[in-house]
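Form 7-S
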Amino acid sequence: MFKRTHTCGELRSNHIDKTVSLNGWIHTVRLHGQVIFIDIRDRYGKTQLVFDSEDYNGNFEQVKKISIEDVISVRGNVRARGSVNPELETGEIEVAVDELLILNETAPLPFMINDRESATEDFRLKYRYLELRTKELQYNLDLRHRTYQVVRKYLSENKFIEVETPVLMKSTPEGARDYLVPSRIHKGRFYALPQSPQTYKQLLMVSGYDRYFQIVKCFRDEDLRADRQPEFTQIDIEMSFIDEEDIISYSTALTRKVFQDVINVELPETFPRITYHDAMNTYGCDRPDLRFGIELKDIKSYTDQSDFNAFKSAEMVKAIIVPGGSKYSRKIIDQLTDYVKTSGAKGLAWMKVQDGVLTGGISKFFVDHLQKTMMVDMELKDGDIILMVGDNTDIVHASLGALRINVAKREGLIIKGDFKPVWVMDFPMFEWDEKAHRHVAMHHPFTAPNPKDIEKLNSDPLHVLSRGYDIVINGSEIGGGSIRIHDTNVQQQVFDLLGINKEEAQAKFGFLLEALTYGAPPHGGIAFGLDRLIMLLADTENIRDVIAFPKTTSAMSLMDNSPSDVSDEQLKELGIALVKQK
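Output:
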């Protein structure tokens, strides 16, 4: 091998007449009789090589046999390229090769490296080490690397200290199932992989480390989707002697710094805020996409006056108005109806606005004066379509919240490269779990209640607001956190509401509760979902595109076939016997 003097993306016109050595993979081969053009590639770029049979001293027939993705090493002279390629950073030059070494010949490729779409995602994940050679994924991982550096630099300059917390920890309920790790030494007992470093970062605040951060792996054994993985990465931040405004200020500045330094996008100095209540009522979800309008409209007062009886008993009736949607055919409306059914809706009612009146769908149930009132109140215009769902609150919000995204994509209302951040505030402390018939924490059991609502903890818990907050960009929650409870009495009140009695609280969180009695400062923090953040920066909707070795939606690694069986001897050492599934 010739020791490389330059990378494949480095040579420019100022290198002309220099002798260089390059190492890399064959990207393309173009045969032109007695002249062969080869693009050599590494992660830095591509350079055109020229093998001229009249000048090349090696075996020209060997060059003809070179295949795409073979690994080679060359030595030659840099010269001006006859026809400049403006799409290549090295497009002004080429290397006339004097010597060639073939370092490794590739086996037949399972898919074309130059075209990710030439294979299904599962097939590409099986050969992930090949897919990682693609320009797109190399760009994404470089983006991820640069984000790490910006985050560490910003936080370090603002006096945050990076502290690693344990990966093997005590199993504590935090809203999802733990991944459990059996102990060989203490048979019958288990560690858990952390869903987050929540308890540890609170302990660090008790220890006096008032500004902590960590880029940390977390694990949750839950059902997966496009933006979720069983193991994921957080930018974990905690601070003492602060309130919400401090967390929001630093988090906003960090987000702006990442977008500016990594993809050269300038976000506003302050991000707008919306309450959880307003987000749900206006957009149908607590992670609103503000890149377009199409807000949810409460129309129950109108449907109650109509002769459309199907909505009379509904808890809520809401609609979205799609400008220009009157062009939707019955086929498209049927597709949208099937779509809202995936969110639990029984169906989708509709009316179109044409020539100043409502037509089609359920319009016949709305008398003229009611139609005129709706036209004025809802500011309806010719060409609009009204899409309506009536049901309980959760189903109406979930179905129309998803539908507004669907029609925005259909109508081309989402502008590429547009980023709309927003803080979502004033979350409820608790939700009611119908199946378990008990209160559950909306965030986690250590979130502090709004001081104004503490007296409601026992009398009206579902109307207690928390000191939690989320940062949302383009409909993706990229971070969430809260001010924590630092008073053991308030913490026990919250545990009581969650059905965790004193004995259970001591068994699960005794170490934290005891620590809070030894001078715990007021504290709070936030955790950014790094993978989702990179997904936004990379402009992809698949979180697997920004992780080097991801799992599938069924939590499988197709490349190394994990999870896999283990030997009986390993199980015996751990004191574990497997139960056969029926």
